[in-house]
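Retro notes (design track)

What went well: tokenization of the new backbones is finally stable.
What didn't: we kept losing track of which sequence belonged to which structure.
Fix going forward: every design gets posted as structure first, then sequence, in one message. First example under the new rule, 292 residues:
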């Protein structure tokens, strides 16, 4: 196993993008709960989380230690690589920033999950072609993958999703992020076009349409977009992936349906009860169970 690898027996983990949001108190977290107890409570409901705050800045050492200390042994923490690396410097002259980031994240030890390189949409001014971007990405991965960090790459240029891009990621055992956004291909289209599984795990992000949903709400306390059909589609395509021996990691954003915890639970139920990983049942009983 690579450093920081933590596998659930079922092969699938489901969680949310971030563990705090406006509207979660009272709808997910018990009313009156102290924010300092949020993560430990979250870990009674889900066994993985994607850290969003690391996109804006490298977390402090004490913050990362807190993530470790407030989660159980089988918990997995994925984290976004800071935007200074992916958006501002775009992988150029960023070794110092990336070194600082990973030096903090390795404090998670066995709980460390994939590091997510989330790139924006690039126009022709940024990169004249997909090949130009791939050359830059290859150089970055060549420098850093020797350290055995698990990584996932998300791109938002639909036309760049081809067999050549997948092969580059496969060469370095980096996961291609499978994402559900309005302008990106549906899973059926993507799996028909190429084999998007490029590592021994796959990283799925249910993101939705941020602009459209924020016209309706910015308080994430309830589901306002019915995603039953879309979640069912993902489940159908991901089951065979797990059967290939590939770990499946799924993270739900509030912008997908309005309330990420409820959608994550719906995914887990559609996947099939006990087959989807859940935290220890005794611990859940002691803490109180949100979802019945």
């Amino acid at each position: 196993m690579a450093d920081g690898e933590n596998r659930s027996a079922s092969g699938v983990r489901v969680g949310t993008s971030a563990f705090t949001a406006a509207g979660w108190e009272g709808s997910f977290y018990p009313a009156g709960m102290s924010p300092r107890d949020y993560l430990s409570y979250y870990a009674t409901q889900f066994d993985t989380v994607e850290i969003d705050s690391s996109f804006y800045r490298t977390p402090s050492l004490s913050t990362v230690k807190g993530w470790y200390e407030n989660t159980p042994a089988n918990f997995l923490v994925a984290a976004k690589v800071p935007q200074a690396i992916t958006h501002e410097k775009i992988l150029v002259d960023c070794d110092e920033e990336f070194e600082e980031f990973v030096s903090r994240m390795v404090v998670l030890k066995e709980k460390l999950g994939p590091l997510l390189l989330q790139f924006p949409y690039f126009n022709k001014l940024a990169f004249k072609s997909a090949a130009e971007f791939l050359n830059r990405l290859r150089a970055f991965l060549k420098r850093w993958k020797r350290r055995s960090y698990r990584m996932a790459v998300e791109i938002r240029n639909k036309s760049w999703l081809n067999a050549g891009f997948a092969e580059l990621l496969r060469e370095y055992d980096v996961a291609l992020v499978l994402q559900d956004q309005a302008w990106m291909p549906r899973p059926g289209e993507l799996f028909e076009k190429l084999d998007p599984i490029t590592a021994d795990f796959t990283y799925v992000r249910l993101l939705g349409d941020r602009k459209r949903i924020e016209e309706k709400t910015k308080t994430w306390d309830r589901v306002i977009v019915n995603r039953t059909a879309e979640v069912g589609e993902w489940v159908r395509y991901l089951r065979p992936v797990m059967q290939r021996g590939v770990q499946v990691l799924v993270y739900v954003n509030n912008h997908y349906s309005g309330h990420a915890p409820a959608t994550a639970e719906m995914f887990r139920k559609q996947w099939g009860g006990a087959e989807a990983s859940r935290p220890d049942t005794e611990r859940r009983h002691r803490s109180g169970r949100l979802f019945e």
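Added context from the reviewer: The chain is about 35% helix and 15% strand.
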